[in-house]
Design goal:
Largest sheet: none
Radius of gyration: 20 Å
Number of strands: 0
Order of helices and strands: HHHHHHH
């Protein structure tokens, strides 16, 4: 009796998921790579946010950060400093543990798009260019699209059980729209 296409497909999928599959080492490598990327980007953003909020790690603290936002033309600088600090800290920590990864990526996308918009015209290279911000933006987009990998708290959540590209695309769009709203509505 021939196998039905659904039986054949599920058998093929199960074989690819098995530890004896030739693809298993590549999958573990990808999962470890995603974990390392999440930790590097997440910790960088969480530390940067705690600099804004609390002045930790030689940071400016909330009042000085608000002064920076005021000098950059934001109409509500203290609110912007608080939102930026909280977004960087919480989304960074979300990436580190792999919790709500597409949304954590979306928050970082919004922050980095704003940073790039503020530095636009200063050239590409640091110290005042956009190169660093562009790398963090690209990493956040990549994590939102690829998902957290196997070593993430997202797998402990009841819903959704698996990452879908549509979740990542929606998250990136949310981050971009949020950045546009902030730039249009709150920046003079």
């Amino acid at each position: 009796m021939p196998l039905s296409s659904s039986t054949s497909t599920s058998t093929h999928t199960a074989a690819l998921r098995g530890t004896n599959s030739p693809l298993a080492p590549a999958r573990y490598g990808a999962d470890i790579g995603l974990l390392l990327l999440r930790c590097a980007v997440g910790l960088t953003m969480a530390v940067h946010g705690s600099q804004k909020l609390f002045g930790w790690f030689n940071g400016a603290g909330l009042d000085s950060t608000a002064g920076f936002f005021a000098s950059d033309g934001y109409s509500v600088p203290k609110t912007m400093a608080t939102v930026a600090g909280l977004t960087e800290t919480l989304c960074g920590l979300g990436l580190v543990i792999g919790l709500l990864t597409p949304l954590a990526g979306a928050g970082i996308v919004g922050i980095m798009l704003n940073a790039i918009a503020m530095k636009w015209g200063n050239g590409f290279f640091n110290p005042s260019g956009i190169e660093y911000d562009l790398v963090l933006l690209t990493a956040a987009v990549s994590l939102a699209l690829a998902g957290p990998g196997r070593f993430a708290a997202d797998h402990l959540l009841p819903v959704p059980r698996s990452h879908r590209l549509s979740h990542g695309l929606a998250a990136v769009a949310l981050g971009a729209v949020s950045a546009a709203i902030v730039l249009v509505a709150l920046h003079d």
